[in-house]
Amino acid sequence: ASFTYPGGIVAVHAKSRTPDDIWDALKAKRTYGTSGPRILLWFELLNASEEALPMGSEVTMIEAPTFRVRAAGSFKQKSGCPVDSLANLSSERLDYLCAGECYNPGDERHALSAIEVIKITPQEYQGEPISALIHDAWQVFACPNGASFCDITFTDDAFTRDSVYYVRVLQEPTLAINGQQLNVVNTAEGRSVNICKGSYQTNQSDNCLAPAQERAWSSPIYINKP
Fold first, then answer.
1. Does residue 17 lie within any of the structural domains?
2. Coil, strand, or helix at residue 84?
3. Cβ neighbours of residue 129 under 8 Å, at least 6 residues apart?
4. Is residue 100 one of the residues assigned to a domain?
5. Rounded to the nearest 10 degrees, how much is the dihedral formed by the CA atoms of 74, 78, 79, 82?
6. Alpha-carbon distance 116 to 220, whole Å?
7. For the chain, is the Cβ count within 10 Å smaller at the N or the C terminus?
8. Nearest-CA neighbor of 60 among 185, 171, 161?
């Protein structure tokens, strides 16, 4: 990842920040990804055991599964770099590493727009058409207007076969670097496309900013029907 090409990130629900616990969480699929911002996400199965089971779990159950999703928007960023970065790195080094724009969160979070649930039912026989097996999105839950935290519970009353569920959290649209690389320019001869290349071929003052809806994706929960 870089200032020009900010990449996605991986988050884990680990017991601690030790390497062993982080690797254990990754292996157990207690992990989720985002398009870049540090969105918080929990996805749990509530009724398969005495305790809620986290994302990445695989269970066998007869009754209709009930899930809970909780999410929080990422912190809004302040410009520049925090004091600890400025104290340990020169301005030249910070400019080289990130164009002088560090991870510098404020106290306010971005609002969330919606939580989408994706349901996939694996094929039961070879050649079964998959068009009816992938439901994207299977359910959509709007978050309260302007709320930075969203908490929903839902049940799959149509649970009749092995199923896989994961969730996608959508954040309010924000300006993204290189979010728009094709800009339409009106010329005397007609409309033309001005390509924002995001490299030395484009003016350094142009970050190709455009609204984008950042998001987070959970690991699935796998439920087998006996």
1. yes
2. helix
3. none
4. no
5. -100
6. 13
7. C
8. 161
Q: How many structural domains is the chain composed of?
A: 1
Per-residue pLDDT tens over the stretch 13-42: 999 999 999 999 999 999 999 999 999 999
Whether the upstream peptide bond of residue 137 has omega within 30° of 0, thus cis, is yes
Residue 95 belongs to some domain of the structure? no
pTM score: 0.86
Q: To which H or E segment does residue 94 belong? A: helix 91-98
Q: Per the domain annotation, does 207 fall within a domain?
A: yes
CATH number at residue 28: 2.70.50
At 85, give phi and psi (nearest 5°).
Answer: -70, -45
Range of the domain at 68: 9-74+110-224
Residue 193 has pLDDT above 90, yes or no: no
